[in-house]
Amino acid sequence: MQQMRNITKLIIIMMIFVASDAVAQQISSSFKIARVKYSGGGDWYNDPASEIELLKYVQKNTNLKVEPVYEFVDLSTDKIFDYPFLFLTGHGNVNFTDSEVRRLRAYLQNGGFLYIDDDYGLDPFIRKEMKKVFPDQEFAELPFSHGIFNAHFKFPNGVPKINEHDGKKPQTFGLFYRGRLCVVFTYETNPSDGWAPPDIHKTPPDKRELAFKFGTNLIVWALSN
User: Using only C-alpha atoms, what is the Rg of the chain?
Assistant: First the structure.
């Protein structure tokens, strides 16, 4: 009987240790962005330094604990659930398989956040694929009064115009789950071009600053809503 009690105590101690270790790992972990790898032929991988530069900016200008690294995830794996923030960009075709659609839907319905930036030419393809994820929704343009435009920095006129593209006005669209904004899609602006190192796209310093500030708002919003 005494031996059984000792074993029980040992098991409880081990459980406490494991739980404490898990909590410690959560506390010590830093925020990272995961780039979405998708099929269809689009260049999902372009400008890999963009996220690194954005996270460096966030590190300097907020109290958030971040890790400025480049990481990517394939929608066909459950690794997407390791990240609170996914980033998808590119110039061309996007294609989600049925299993990827189900996995992305589950991710978004369980608190995940996806930022999509049209790097020019992505718009018609991503609209079609996201319709698979939320069949009952169309992308809704976010009003300038939406909280994402003042989550940390103030953008009274909405998303800033970073890249000219077709010269149209910049727009920000969203998809929602139970009232929570879980997908943001920027069109005719391309903030992520502004995150890239300055020698890549020759983005003027003032526009790079605006791009970083808007990216910071996206992260702050995603982590607080």
Answer: 20
Residue 21 CA to residue 27 CA, distance in Å, equals: 10
Superfamily of domain 31-224: Domain of unknown function DUF4159 (3.40.50.12140)
pLDDT (0 to 100) of residue 95: 97
Distance CA 31, CA 48 (A): 17
How would you classify the pairing of strands 171-177 and 140-141?
Answer: antiparallel
pLDDT in tens, 104-122: 999 999 999 999 999 999 9
C-alpha–C-alpha distance, residues 38 and 154, integer Å:
32
Is-contact 57 22, C-beta < 8 A?
A: no
CA 117/CA 187 separation, integer angstroms: 7
pLDDT score at 72:
98
Any idea where the domains of the chain sit in the sequence? 1-30, 31-224
| 42 vs 91: CA distance, rounded Å | 6
Amino acid identity, residue 38?
A: Y
| Ranges under pLDDT 50 in the chain | 1-28
